[in-house]
Backbone:
C-alpha cells in the first residue's frame, strides 16, 4: 500500500528538480525595454548575454576570477539570491558637456555561492541596464572564507554576435596610450586598451570600456583570430599579480554603450553615471573651466629651454609677457613648465623655483590682471620622489593662491618597475587627486591611466592627456598626426573623458624637424577647440603666432569651455564630424566641423537652435583652395543670419573645417 503522504512529497521533489533543471535565465531590461540582459549558470559557470531590440549583441559570455592560493571564482556556483532595483534621477555636474545628466537604469544583483570548491563562499555580480547600454561589476563580500586576497586573472568575456569593425590602440609597445587608433576587424585586434569602439554591419555603434577604476588594475582586452570573443586582461604588477583586494571590495564597472550612430554613442553618459556623486564640497569655487595659454610650445620649437640658462622659458619677465597677452584676449590662465629645479637632471624639486622665477610676484601680477598662474609637477615617473614632496609642493601652490596644477609622468615605468595602468599606478593617481582636492587644486594629468569617469566624484580631475596630442606635430618622425586622427578621437579616446590635446597651433612650419607638419588647415585648428572637449582648453602655440593672425584668433578668444548642451549634427568616424555646443548659462552656440583625408561639403542642420529665433552666424571657414598639405592658412570670415530651419552648406578642404559662433539676436 502506497503511503499517500510520502508519495506527494516524492512528486513534489521531482517537480522541483525538473523546474530547477529547466530554470529560465534571470533577465533584466532597460527602462524603455530596448536593451535586455540575461544571467545564467551552466554547470556551475556564470554567464551573461545582451540583446538590443531583440537582436543579440553579446552571446553567452563567461564571468569569473582566477585567484592566488585559493580556489578560483570560476565554477561550482549556484544562485543564492537576487535583488532588483530601479533608479531615475537627473544630476548636475560641476562642469561638463551638458549642464544636467539623466541617470536611469534597472538593476539586477545576483548573489552566487560556491558549493564544493569553497563551500559557502560568496560572490556577487551587479548589472545595471540603461537605455543605451549596460554596466556590470563584481562585488567581493568580506566573509570568513574570503578576507584579503589576490586576483591573478579576470575571466570576463565579451562574446559578440558578429565581428564588427573596430577602432582601437595596442595595449603594448606604446607609452601612455599615445598611439594612432587603428581600424580593424574585431578578431584582428590582438591585445588592446579600452575604450574600443565598434560599428556593426547594420550601422549600430558600440564602445567597450570601464567606469570607476578604484584600487584595481586597468582592463585591457585580448582578441582571438577567427573568433568574435574578447577577453579581459588586467594590467599586472611587476610580480605578475593583478589586484590585491583589501578594503575596496568591488571591481570597476565593465561598460558597453550601444547606439544607433556615432553621435548618439558619443552622447552616452553611462560611464559618468556609474561613478559616485561629487565628494568635494563647493568644488565649483576652484574647479573653474577656462581657456589658457602656456609657456610650452616654445620648448618644442627649441626657442626656449625647460632648464635654466640663456634661453630659459620660465622666467618672471617671460611669464608676465604671456599674462599680459592672456589678459588682453580673455584667457583665464598661463601654464608654466620648467619653473623648478632640476630640469637638467630630472631630479625634481616641487618647492624650489629657479632663481629667475618669482612665484609670489607672478601670482600677485596674475591676480592684478585676472590671470591664473597654472603650476606644473613633472615627476618623470619617479613616484617615491614625488610622494615625499607632494604635500609640500601642493601647499606651496595653495599658499600662493593657485588653483591649478598640471602633473606629468614621462617614463616607461613608474619607479622604474610598475606600469602606469597597474593597481600601483591607479593607487598613486587617486592619492594625487585626493591630496590636490584637500589643497583646493584642480588637476590636468598627463601620462595617466585611461580615464573612467572619476571626474563626477572628483571634479578637480578636470582633464587628462592619455592621447596622441598636438605635440606629436612638433616632433613625430613620421610627419605628425594624420588628417583622420582628430576626427576619430571624439569617438574613441574622447568617450573616456576630457582630453588635453592642446589644439590651435597657428604656425605649421617646423624649423626643428622640417619633415614634421601640423596636418590640418588653420580653420580646422579653430574647429578642434570645440570638437575635442576639455574644460581646461589650452591654446598651444606661441603668442607671436596668434598676434600675427588676429582674425581667426578671435574665435578662440570667444569660445567657452563649459557647456549646457552638446549635439552632433553629422559624423562618420575617421572621415568627418560636426559638433555643436551651447555655452553654459547663455544663448550662444559654438560649432566645430572638420574633415579627415577627403575634402567634402559639410551639411550642418541648425535644428538644435531655439525655434522662432534668429541668430547671427560668424563663420570661419577654409578659404579658397585651402588644403592642409599645400596651403593650410587661408581662412574666410563671413556673417549671415540663420534660424533653426537653416541648413548651412560649407565646403571644407582635405583635413579642413570651419568654426561658427551663433549669437542669438534680440527679437524685433
Residues:
Amino acid at each position: 500500500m502506497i503511503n499517500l503522504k510520502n508519495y506527494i512529497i516524492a512528486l513534489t521533489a521531482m517537480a522541483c528538480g525538473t523546474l530547477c533543471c529547466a530554470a529560465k535565465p534571470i533577465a533584466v531590461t532597460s527602462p524603455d525595454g530596448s536593451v535586455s540582459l540575461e544571467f545564467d549558470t551552466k554547470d556551475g559557470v556564470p554567464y551573461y548575454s545582451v540583446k538590443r531590440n531583440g537582436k543579440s549583441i553579446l552571446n553567452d559570455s563567461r564571468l569569473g576570477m582566477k585567484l592566488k592560493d585559493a580556489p578560483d571564482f570560476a565554477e561550482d556556483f549556484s544562485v543564492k539570491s537576487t535583488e532588483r532595483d530601479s533608479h531615475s534621477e537627473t544630476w548636475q555636474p560641476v562642469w561638463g558637456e551638458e549642464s544636467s545628466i539623466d541617470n536611469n537604469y534597472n538593476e539586477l544583483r545576483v548573489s552566487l555561492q560556491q558549493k564544493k570548491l569553497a563551500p559557502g563562499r560568496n560572490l556577487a555580480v551587479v548589472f545595471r541596464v540603461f537605455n543605451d547600454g549596460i554596466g556590470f561589476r563584481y562585488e567581493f563580500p568580506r566573509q570568513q572564507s574570503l578576507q584579503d586576497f589576490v586576483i591573478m586573472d579576470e575571466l570576463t568575456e565579451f562574446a559578440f554576435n558578429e565581428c564588427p569593425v573596430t577602432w582601437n590602440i595596442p595595449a603594448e609597445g606604446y607609452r601612455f596610450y599615445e598611439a594612432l587608433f587603428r581600424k580593424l576587424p574585431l578578431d584582428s585586434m590582438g591585445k588592446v586598451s579600452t575604450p574600443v569602439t565598434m560599428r556593426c554591419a547594420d550601422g549600430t555603434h558600440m564602445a567597450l570600456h570601464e567606469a570607476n577604476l578604484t584600487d584595481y588594475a586597468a582592463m585591457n582586452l585580448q582578441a582571438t583570430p577567427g573568433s568574435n570573443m574578447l577577453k579581459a586582461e588586467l594590467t599586472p604588477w611587476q610580480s605578475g599579480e593583478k589586484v590585491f583586494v583589501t578594503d575596496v571590495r568591488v571591481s570597476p564597472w565593465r561598460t558597453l554603450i550601444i547606439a544607433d550612430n556615432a553621435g548618439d554613442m558619443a552622447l552616452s553618459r553611462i560611464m559618468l553615471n556609474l561613478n559616485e556623486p561629487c565628494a568635494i564640497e563647493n568644488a565649483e569655487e576652484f574647479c573653474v573651466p577656462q581657456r589658457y595659454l602656456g609657456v610650452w610650445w616654445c620648448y618644442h620649437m627649441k626657442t626656449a629651454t625647460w632648464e635654466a640658462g640663456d634661453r630659459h622659458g620660465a622666467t618672471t619677465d617671460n611669464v608676465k609677457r604671456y599674462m599680459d597677452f592672456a589678459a588682453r584676449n580673455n584667457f583665464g590662465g598661463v601654464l608654466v613648465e620648467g619653473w623648478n629645479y632640476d630640469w637638467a637632471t630630472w631630479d625634481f624639486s616641487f618647492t624650489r623655483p629657479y632663481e629667475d622665477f618669482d612665484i609670489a610676484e607672478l601670482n600677485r601680477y596674475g591676480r592684478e590682471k585676472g590671470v591664473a598662474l597654472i603650476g606644473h609637477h613633472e615627476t618623470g615617473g619617479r613616484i617615491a620622489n614625488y610622494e615625499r614632496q607632494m604635500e609640500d609642493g601642493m601647499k606651496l601652490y595653495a599658499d600662493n593662491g593657485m588653483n591649478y596644477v598640471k602633473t606629468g609622468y614621462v617614463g616607461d615605468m613608474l619607479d622604474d618597475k610598475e606600469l602606469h595602468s597597474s593597481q600601483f599606478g591607479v593607487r598613486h593617481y587617486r592619492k594625487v587627486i585626493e591630496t590636490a582636492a584637500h589643497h583646493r587644486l584642480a588637476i590636468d594629468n598627463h601620462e595617466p591611466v585611461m580615464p573612467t569617469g572619476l571626474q563626477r566624484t572628483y571634479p578637480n580631475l578636470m582633464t587628462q592627456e592619455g592621447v596622441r596630442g598636438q605635440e606629436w606635430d612638433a616632433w613625430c618622425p613620421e610627419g605628425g598626426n594624420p588628417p583622420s586622427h582628430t576626427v576619430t578621437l571624439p569617438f574613441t579616446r574622447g568617450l573616456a573623458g576630457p582630453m588635453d590635446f592642446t589644439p590651435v597651433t597657428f604656425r605649421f612650419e617646423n624649423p626643428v624637424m622640417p619633415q614634421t607638419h601640423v596636418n590640418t588647415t588653420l580653420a580646422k585648428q579653430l574647429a578642434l577647440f570645440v570638437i575635442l572637449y576639455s574644460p581646461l582648453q589650452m591654446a598651444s602655440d606661441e603668442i607671436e603666432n596668434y598676434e600675427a593672425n588676429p582674425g581667426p584668433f578671435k574665435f578662440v578668444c570667444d569660445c567657452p569651455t563649459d557647456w549646457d548642451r552638446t549635439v552632433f549634427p553629422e559624423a562618420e568616424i575617421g572621415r568627418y564630424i560636426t559638433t555643436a555646443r551651447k555655452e553654459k548659462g547663455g544663448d550662444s552656440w559654438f560649432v566645430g566641423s572638420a574633415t579627415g583625408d577627403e575634402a567634402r561639403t559639410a551639411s550642418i542642420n541648425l535644428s538644435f537652435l531655439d525655434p522662432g529665433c534668429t541668430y547671427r552666424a560668424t563663420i570661419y571657414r577654409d578659404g579658397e583652395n585651402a588644403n592642409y598639405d599645400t596651403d593650410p592658412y587661408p581662412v574666410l570670415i563671413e556673417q549671415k543670419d540663420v534660424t533653426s530651419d537653416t541648413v548651412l552648406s560649407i565646403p571644407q578642404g582635405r583635413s579642413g573645417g570651419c568654426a561658427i559662433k551663433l549669437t542669438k539676436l534680440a527679437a524685433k
Summary: The first helix runs from residue 4 to 21.
